[in-house]
From TrEMBL:
InterPro entries in the record: BT1, FBT, MFS_trans_sf
Membrane topology recorded in Swiss-Prot or TrEMBL: Multi-pass membrane protein
Transmembrane segments: 20-38, 81-99, 105-127, 157-178, 184-203, 234-258, 270-288, 300-319, 331-356, 368-394, 406-426
Name listed for the protein in its UniProt record: Folate-biopterin transporter 7
Organism, as annotated: Lupinus luteus
Homology family: Belongs to the major facilitator superfamily. Folate-biopterin transporter (TC 2.A.71) family.
Keywords (A to Z) from UniProt: Membrane, Transmembrane, Transmembrane helix, Transport
Subcellular location as annotated: Membrane
Any Gene Ontology CC annotation: membrane
Length: 437
């Protein structure tokens, strides 16, 4: 009887998290339309496009607040699912409004709606991440066949779910963007979010089998969060991880214009490139779960950082025409290498989230994971603004890309730097436990 109940709990958890992370991955579907809508419909330049994209992520920086609310305030006796439902509702509302707005919508107005959408996404992601952290800390004796919570099985599952959503979102996005108006893509995603909302409110949080923790006030929860963040292994590792992103000047807007305007790469090719990237994320989740869980997180993360720098140097050779001279078509390079580099930035998150879930104190899972994701979001925003400054310094515009090669080399050099301070990342918790034994 108990085993059957635990099995049912596991199925319900995977149902909620699988849908939540799948939708999270599928967000690339409307955002692909947003990029082309801003570029072609509203005629923004590369720097403005990058500023708008990064500024729209500002609600993600507020994740610690949403985590505190989720940890400390229960709604109808539940403290995770109501926040997922609220997040889905806010996203559905914003995308449906954008879908029904005129094509002459102003940049300011669409920016407000995109901020609202990302606010909803941030709230839902915090609750989803908190459930993953809570379930990952369950004792290994819950079932006879279960593996230790530190194994990262659930993290790998949600990573794969998100990647599957990304693959499908980019595949359909590449097809839709050349055949339908962006508003139709906004409408499809808005209806999907509405469906997620109704499915979420139909599930009882009691059926998830989450560990019971007493409801405490926000003040006490904030105090516990600050205590947790003072722990050197948490503070140093999160600081290093955020800095490893922030220090890199992102040139995404410039590369997008270079590929579409200078090289005349078709939108469907860019869609396929993103599909390839998401497919490698899916494969990464499977490989990590099967073969790399026992490898120290520091080693994996440092290796990924070095690979990022190597691919940026490869982009330098691409911009200089080296691959074209040896017979590699631009479109093939964009699909494989550009698609892979775009998602390689996120590869580090899986092993790092497994490590942080192990370090999270009991009852602070939502707050710590939210703080981590907030730090990452803020780092990406800083990286984006840093990239705009670099593009201005090397004098790259929507029509002049002569300085792009230098920018890519500077970007690669900045990416290498954090590796020299990777000792800030602690050894895995289970490794420390073995040493103590």
């Amino acid at each position: 009887m108990g085993s059957s109940s635990l099995h049912s709990d596991g199925n319900q958890v995977k149902k909620v998290l699988g849908l939540g992370y799948w939708v999270q991955g599928f967000r690339c579907f409307p955002w692909l339309a947003v990029i082309f809508f801003l570029k072609d419909g509203l005629s923004v330049d590369p720097s403005t496009l990058q500023i708008l994209q990064n500024s729209a992520n500002l609600p993600m920086v507020g994740k610690p607040l949403y985590g505190l609310l989720s940890d400390s305030i229960y709604i109808f006796g539940q403290h995770r699912l109501p926040y997922i439902a609220l997040g889905a509702f806010l996203q559905a509302l914003s995308w449906l409004v954008i879908a029904n707005s005129p094509s002459t919508i102003s940049i300011f107005t669409i920016s407000i709606y995109l901020l609202l959408s990302n606010l909803g996404a941030a709230i839902a992601e915090v609750a989803n991440d908190a459930i993953v952290a809570e379930m990952s800390k369950q004792p290994p004796s819950s079932t006879k066949n279960s593996q230790p919570s530190s194994s990262g099985n659930l993290q790998s599952f949600v990573w794969i779910a998100s990647s599957v959503g990304g693959v499908l979102g980019n595949l359909l996005g590449g097809i839709f963007i050349s055949r339908f108006a962006p508003q139709s893509m906004f409408l499809v995603f808005g209806l999907l979010l509405a469906l997620q909302f109704f499915i979420t409110i139909s599930v009882s949080e009691n059926s998830l089998g989450l560990p019971k923790s007493p409801s405490v006030g926000i003040k006490k929860q904030l105090s516990e969060l600050l205590i947790a963040l003072r722990k050197p292994e948490i503070a140093y590792s999160i600081s290093w991880f955020a800095a490893s992103y922030a220090i890199i000047p992102a040139l995404t807007g410039t590369m997008f214009f270079y590929q579409t305007e200078h090289l005349q790469i078709n939108s469907s090719v860019l869609g396929i490139s993103k599909v390839f990237g998401q497919a490698t994320m899916l494969l990464w989740g499977i490989i990590y779960n099967q073969y790399l869980k026992s490898v120290p997180s520091r080693k994996i993360i440092s290796t990924i950082q070095a690979m990022m720098a190597l691919l940026m140097v490869s982009d330098f050779f691409f911009v200089k025409g080296l691959y074209r001279e040896i017979g590699v078509p631009d479109s093939l390079y964009v699909v494989i290498f550009s698609g892979f580099l775009e998602v390689l930035f996120f590869f580090k998150i899986l092993p790092f989230s497994v490590l942080i879930a192990q370090l999270c104190p009991q009852g602070c899972e939502g707050s710590i994971m939210a703080f981590l994701m907030s730090a990452i979001a803020f780092a990406f925003i800083v990286s984006g603004y840093f990239g705009v400054a670099l593009a201005s310094y090397i004098k790259v515009t929507g029509t002049d890309f002569s300085g792009l090669g230098l920018g890519l080399l500077i970007q690669a050099a900045c990416t290498i730097l954090p590796i020299f301070w990777s000792s800030c990342i602690p050894d895995d918790v289970k490794s420390k436990a073995k040493k103590k034994d």
